[in-house]
Amino acid sequence: MRLSRRTLLAAGLTAPLAACSTPQRRGAGGPVEITFWSALRGSQQVVDAFNSSQNRIRVVFQQIPSGGQGGYAKLSNAARAGNAPDVATIEYPQVPGYAIDGVARDITDLVTDRVKQKILPQALKLTTFDDRVFSVPLDVEPMVLHYREDLFRANGFEVPGTWDEFADLARAVRAKFPDKRLTIFPTDGAMQFACYAWQAGAQWFDTSGGRWRVSLADEPTRKVAAYWQRLIDEDLVFRNAGDSKQHDAQIGQDRVIVRLSGAWDAGAQMRARPAQKGRWRIAPMPIWDEQVVGTHGGSTFAVTKDSLQPEAAMEFIEWQCTHPDALTARLKSGTSSQYPVAPGLVEAGAKAFPGEYYGGQDIYRLFQQEADKIRDGWVWGPRMTATQKVMQDGFARAGAGVGTLLDAVREAQSGTMPDLKALGLSTEEGTR
Amino acid sequence: MTLLGRTTVNVVIGVSVLYTLLPVMWLVLAATKNVDALFNSDLFGGFSFVENVKNLFAMDKGLYPRWYANSLLYAVIGAAVSAFVSIACGYAFDKYAFRHKEKLFGLVLAAVMVPQTVLALPLYLMASEAGLVNTFWAVFIPALFNPFGVYLGRIFAQGYVPDEVLEAARIDGAGDLATYFKVAFRMLGTGVVTLFLFQLTTIWNNFFLPMVMLSDQLLYPVSLGLYQWNSSATVSPEYYPVVIMGSLFAVLPLIVAFMLLQRFWKAGLTAGAVK
Amino acid sequence: MKNKLACALLMAPFFLLLVTVFLVPTGTAVWLSFFAADQPGLGFGPESTVFVGLRSYGAVLSDPTFLTSLLTVLLYCLIYIPLMVVGALGLALLLDSGVAKLRGWMQMGLYLPHAVPGIIAALIWLYLYTPGLSPIIDLFAKADVEISFLGVNTVLPSIVNIALWSNLGYNMVIFYAALQAVPREVLEASVVDGAGPVKQALRIKTPLVRGAIVTVGIFTLIWALQLFTEPVLLSQSTPMISARFSPSMYIYDAAFTRNNYGLAAAASVILLAFTVALSYGVTRWTNRKAA
User: Which residue of A has its CA nearest to B232?
Assistant: First the structure.
């Protein structure tokens, strides 16, 4: 009995069963057929537009659940069975994991200079490891501050420019409205927390030395953890799950007046709460001292190891990420405020976004300005989903008053190291 | 015994029975209510039993009947095959003498101890290699294995099939296999039914293995399907009444089987424990 | 009986299963824990299957989340098993005391939850633990008591309760059957010696059903160590149950969410060794006490 991940993956390619599940890749003389999985809204429209724009490649699309809802499990299972789709959608934090597992193919040679010139280099860096490119970003999402302009104006609140001002504002809100809070510290928000740390100069993972140096509790992260811990201890922020009915109610009942999230969330907010039209505005993130931000959210497209048509797959990916028609088609399914990695598409996105919800504010210009401030050098880890989960377990306890945010971060580190070691990676632990 | 003593005994037993029965009663009651009544803890209002049943069968394009059929298929056929296999082996253990018999029997007993979770990953990888992952067989085949059934089978063979009968059959010139199928098997009838019932509940309860093996919703048994619907319910509450009604339907056949076939359960329990 | 071929034929189907779904998988688990598809350096290059010795074991044993899961399940056993054995035995003794009314019905009522599949038992209780749905929480609320069944400290007892509810009647029936098999003369003799009903139950009957107590104890232990269904279901509703709450959940998470087979296999072997050692220990300990 010889079993290893790779032999199993390879077995799938030759197994007759797998062959049946990916029917005729190339009909005699007909177009090349490739499969595409995504949880992103509007993907079907993008695929339809691509299929009708040319007749060499035909994309077959399947809508799958989002990553955390089972989408990643589905992709991993398919890869294990040797029938992953040609093109898969992977969020930034999960790219290194899928690259290490051999699911995302090394596409360095397929990403031409033409593509590289069209997309923001800081985005492509996040999907490049060991000088190899493993996926192509679709959007890059600097974190911004969404705020209730009506409530700010009515109460004479100023938009905070620094984190100190942010904390002062939190106290002011708490003092004035016992049932309101400035914002939430989401106990399921390891990705928000990562973004705060990213902005503060943290380097959770570092591959520069030829090995994975892991320091989740480095000095900048400790600063951020202490900062939010204080807000929690002083009862200045809500501390419950962000992805919950409870939080929906907090926003819906005007009890939360600031939301910190990626640029994409502007569109999501608009769809989820049409009644709050005209009340929200968007501002840059508060800063520590440097004019930098981190990102929150964003998706990339990978060609999988099971693809028999990587060139065709890459052509489709390039079109999706850089062609204006792709963005136009995506926006047909409803508004989206995703910030495209291709600066050439920003214009089209801005034009399609209805301004009234944000009182006519030119939010895309703000996003553009913020995208340029994304701090360079951030690297996601090899088992980010697991790291995130352990951290959130700690956050949930800290939110309930057991342990601190820093404990949660440290637990995440000690719960991640065994994974990396057991995978045989070269590792090194930074400060804890 | 004093009156006080008697009262205490009966009160303690009565309270315990309430503890075991009330949650089931709640399930029955809750199944009759719509979402609003459920969330208002309105004990008797919002009657919508028929509506709930309709919703259950219509939800997600009629997945529930499909899951129910799958569960029946996995459990009924699986339990029948498993009972035959186990009882034959238990019988052979009792009636034949061969070298290392007790050591081999020890191995069978050891298998009872091994947690299912330990075997899950290797079983998954083997099924993956054989192309069986996400198929009926991946859940069906491992569920046939019931080492405890062999143990019970041996006890039943010892108790129900006297050696003299077999000896008489042999003198009549019947072969060993013919004797087993024509004579012994009939005497083991009660045992076979007991093993069938035990394995039926085990397979009906099976949750871990389907969770590991299946990704196609159409192959899910009820247990896994309800688990998935419950996760949807945390986001969309309209799933709650459906999960509750689905649970009620999933419990019913077992409760009925248990009521009707009481003596078989007890036969198994007693044989297993007292010896 | 002598016909070896017949014997082999009768045993073959079962042993075929034993080999394919038990021996080979167990062997594979052990093999996987020593070999891994290795990813040298940063891990982005090609991987190769190599012997890694105890590396996976080292990783598991240095993983605080795994050790916590072991401690959690031990704590669970410490609360659950005594409650279960004492509760089931106590009820069996009461039923056997001769003054209990409606014995048949009571037995059936107590046994009923065992006919409810584990996942559904967990579902029922989850809803009884969920604020808004639960009549129990409402009752407490009416008495101005705020109670949370899924909080930091209450979640483990809540799981114990589900297991207890499911299995109490089942084990009670086993004890009751054992008590019924106690020879009447022994009991009559003790009455003559002046033993009251309580003393008779504790001093005479209980020692006589020791065998059943040990069997129930060990089976309960083996099942308890596999703790999976209840916490997995409850984790959908409370963040206080992590994906690595129990060793079984840790194994599932390592194998199927983290795609780390070496780690999962090593954790499996450790759980197996742990189970065998504990069952063996308990058996030895009770045997010595008997001697």
Answer: A69
* Contact at CB, A415 and C243, closer than 8 angstroms: no
A-C C-beta contacts closer than 8 Å: 137
Q: Over the stretch C160-216, which tens digit does the pLDDT of each residue have?
A: 999 999 999 999 988 998 898 888 888 888 888 887 888 888 888 899 898 889 989
CA gap B65, B51 in Å, rounded: 16
Mean pLDDT of A16-27: 41
DSSP code, position B183? I
- A117: number of Cβ within 10 Å: 11
Q: Report the predicted TM-score, pTM, of the whole model to 2 decimal places.
A: 0.90
Cα torsion at A25, A311, A58, A10 (round to 10°)? 40
Please name the residues in contact with A262: beta carbons below 8 A apart, sequence gap of 6 or more: A141, A142, A143, A144, A295, A296, A297, A298
Tell me how far apart the alpha carbons of residues A394 and A402 are, in angstroms, rounded to a whole number. Answer: 9
Is residue A190 a contact partner of residue A202, using CB atoms and an 8 Å limit? no
DSSP class of A69: G
Q: Flag whether residue C151 sits within 8 Å of chain A, measured between CB atoms.
A: yes
pLDDT tens sequence across B45-86: 678 888 889 989 998 888 999 999 999 999 999 999 999 999
Q: Average model confidence (pLDDT) for chain A?
A: 90
Best CA proximity match to B20, nearest among C140, C83, C121: C121
State yes or no: pLDDT of B189 exceeds 80: yes
The two structure tokens encoding residue C242? 């992590």
Pair C166, C113: CB distance under 8 Å: yes
Rg (alpha carbons) of chain A, rounded to whole number = 22
**Predicted confidence band of residue A19 (pLDDT cuts 50, 70, 90):** very low
Handedness of CA B164, B169, B170, B172 (dihedral sign): positive
C235: distance to nearest CA of chain A, Å?
A: 11
Nearest by CB: A73 against C24, C62, C257? C257
Residues of B in contact with C235 (CB under 8 A): none
Q: Name which of C42, C64, C239 is nearest A130 (Cβ-Cβ).
A: C42
Instruction: Provide, as residue numbers in chain B, all residues whose Cβ is less than 8 Å from the Cβ of A8.
Output: 125, 128-129
pLDDT (average), residues A289-293: 95
- For residue A374, give the DSSP letter: B
User: Using a CB-CB distance cutoff of 8 angstroms, which residues of chain A are in contact with residue C56?
Assistant: 422
- For C100-148, write each residue's pLDDT tens digit: 888 888 888 898 898 899 999 999 999 999 888 888 888 888 888 888 8
From the list A188, A327, A173, the residue with the least C-alpha distance to A244 is: A188
Residue A87 is given by DSSP the state E
Cα A429 from Cα A214, distance rounded (Å): 5
